[in-house]
Amino acid sequence: FRTLGDIDPAGRKVVVRADLNVPVRDGKVGDPTRIQRAAETIRALLDKGAAVLVLSHFDRPKGKVVPGMSLRPIAAELEKVVGRPVRFVDTDWRDGRAAAAAAAAKPGDVLLFENTRFHPGEEDNDDAFAAQLAALGELFVNDAFSAAHRAHASTEGIARHLPAVAGLTMAAELAALEKALVAPERPVIAIVGGAKVSTKIDLLENLSTRVDQLVIGGGMANTFLAARGHRIGKSLCEADKLETARNIEGAARRAGCEIVLPVDVVAAKAFEAHAPHRVCGLDEVADDEMILDIGPRTVADLERRLDRARTVVWNGPFGAFELEPFDAGTNAVARIVARLTAAGRLLSVAGGGDTVAALNAAAVADDFSFVSTAGGAFLEWLEGKPLPGVEALRPRQAR
Ligand code: 3PG
């Protein structure tokens, strides 16, 4: 991929696609990580003498102007983080305001345009709308890895109209994912948690052909345990996915990948914080109990495995991590990965909304080698699917 180092943005107008789709509650930005990462690219371009024209979507307004989904509140936040004035361009993308503002932009200016999804051409990847966006500037920098699974006008279409390169965040995401899965140091362990097998079938299948051990956690583990014939009481389980789980186990075995399930669990009668609970062996879960976390023998087993591994990719928490104390297993494993990473023994890459929340809660996210800001895009990448926003950055002859 070509990156920022391959272009000379001095005196040019550079269109930067960022992902400023951050959580906002009561007008306040929740997690500003995406804004912080976009700011690095914006600052780098400003330092080289560019005018920076920032595009992003926000939420899902479905091609209409929805005032509650305006990017305006984000402009103030972006200004704080970048440390330079940011001018918000209020446009419905049907008026001429975006073009006029871009035409007037000078080196050192930062413009943030209104939500690209206010125009239906964005999600339709309409070529006329892509050309309209491209006409704002002279170069295109895509820094929105987390939106790269969408083939939209501002992520994919625009790259057909302008010289296109990856921004710093995009480049860092791609480098980390490449190191973790394309050319990893082995052994590689993937940890995949979450509630449902049904949403992660493609991901599990793809990972089982790439990693040495696939650790399955969360509600999904119950389905795999049930498929192996273990008693799981009234645990969350997809009864119609037992065959799928067995097929994934079979495919993994043929690919030489070991599927790793809990060897002990924490069980409770109620799905609530601080519910009375006990540690028990796999077949000791009573009919009126449910599995809410992994047990200490499982944590010790994972520690031994991680100790021998060189690379770990993590998506999805283990137990019902949103309920104390059933976050204990996820926290313990997160601390082990963080310690081994800090000691230089492990390359660790994590991604997905819940995963990042869990690592932040355990206060270990900074110790991981790389934490992706992507949700859906990270999952699709783990599924082995090409991401349109990334593909559009490849030199044309390589596509
Ligand atoms: C995300 O938050 O995962 C990205 O910004 C993509 O958003 P979308 O799922 O609405 O396309």
Automatic annotation (TrEMBL):
Family stated for the protein in its record: Belongs to the phosphoglycerate kinase family.
Enzyme Commission code(s) on record: 2.7.2.3
Species in which this protein is naturally found: Tepidamorphus gemmatus
Binding site residues for (2R)-3-phosphoglycerate: R34, R117, R150
Entry's Gene Ontology BP terms: gluconeogenesis; glycolytic process
Main subcellular location: cytoplasm
Protein name: Phosphoglycerate kinase
Subcellular location: Cytoplasm
Quaternary assembly: Monomer.
Keyword line: ATP-binding, Cytoplasm, Glycolysis, Kinase, Nucleotide-binding, Transferase
Keyword S-adenosyl-L-methionine attributed: no
